[in-house]
Amino acid sequence: MNLAAPPGRTTGLPLGALLALATSVFLGCLTEVVPAGILLPASAGLGVSPAATGQLVTVYAITTALTAVPLTAATARVPRRTLLLVLVAGFVVTNGVIAVSPWFALVLAARIVSGAITGVLWSLVANYAMRLVPVERSGRALAVAMAGTPVGFALGVPAGAALGAFLGWRWVFVVMGLIALPLLRWIWLAVPPLPGEPAGDRPRLRTVLRTPGLRPLLVLVIAFSLGHNIFYTYLGPFYAERGHPGLLSTGLLLFGLATVAGLWLVGLVLDRYPRAVLLGCAATGATAIVVLALGGHDTVVLLVAGALWGLAFGGAPTSFQAVTARLAGRRADTAQSLTIASWNGAVAGGALTGGIVLDTVAAALPWAAATLLLVPILLAGPVTSSGSDPARSRR
């Protein structure tokens, strides 16, 4: 077997290229979550209710879930760097439309397009990063490339809220468009071009779904994302019920900072211990949520448990994508798109399910989330044993 790195791959970490990919991910994450921080001024500016404006986040996640698989398959033959440039340029256009549009319907349409862009972006970046390095460094490369996600969550909502309050909510989207312009040149200069998949190599969806371990992995991803979002979406009401309505911004900030640390820790050990990472993320997250449920009104306990939850969450999406690559092969964009679709479908489902639980038995909210996080603990063994063959990752 020829283990030499193919063209475009290096024996170390190409930080310039990986950081450009991370910035692309950061832009996608920022575009997704920033409306949550400018909900009230945006609703006033567009002349709709805050509940309607909140759907700008929901429709984004649903669109990402629905389009990730078909659009990833449709763009599989496009050269990778060219596709990445088109996607980033798409963010420039859609954020620009939102910045100037006086009509809510047009803003909603732009958000739908942005969600479709993001579904392809997640799948593309994951495999791009791993194709740039040798197999034994793929987890670390993926952790660097996906660092834009926790940074986006940590900074996106508070930074967007501050900028919206200072300059106006439309300027938030202008700034995101301006971030993308120098990013286009950075990608062109720093990210090596890689070919798309030849037509004959493109796997059928049913064939990919028969990959050993992939279907339990998708169940694992759905359970983790559903459990997380059932509770995370409604942290505000949870803190208010505990007598700390003003604790939300601090709690979210600590959570976001902890996700960055969690991703760094996962990047250090993911290549060697994928099963331990999956078990650790799920078990730590479940424990933290239980502590939140039992923590009463103690501010320190609530904040520390929230930060521990963020630590567990930080590396989870990256570990899911890395394990997907171990199962289906490093060029299996279709498998990655299934993981992305499962994750984002559960984001929308978690918000919906959590709202129902909140309106019926609010006290059950953290327990429902913690119970769902037990599913990844049960499935981590079968999933990782199916992807234990290193040769599979080199295809």
From TrEMBL:
**Annotated TM spans:** 12-40, 52-71, 83-106, 112-130, 142-165, 171-191, 212-235, 247-269, 276-294, 300-320, 340-358, 364-385
One Pfam family of this chain:
MFS_1
Membrane topology label:
Multi-pass membrane protein
What region holds the Major facilitator superfamily (MFS) profile domain? Answer: 17-388
Q: Write out the annotated subcellular location.
A: Cell membrane
InterPro entries per UniProt: MFS (IPR011701), MFS_dom (IPR020846), MFS_Efflux_Transporters (IPR050189), MFS_trans_sf (IPR036259)
Q: Which domain of life is it from?
A: Bacteria
Its keywords, alphabetically, are: Cell membrane, Membrane, Transmembrane, Transmembrane helix
Name of this protein: MFS transporter
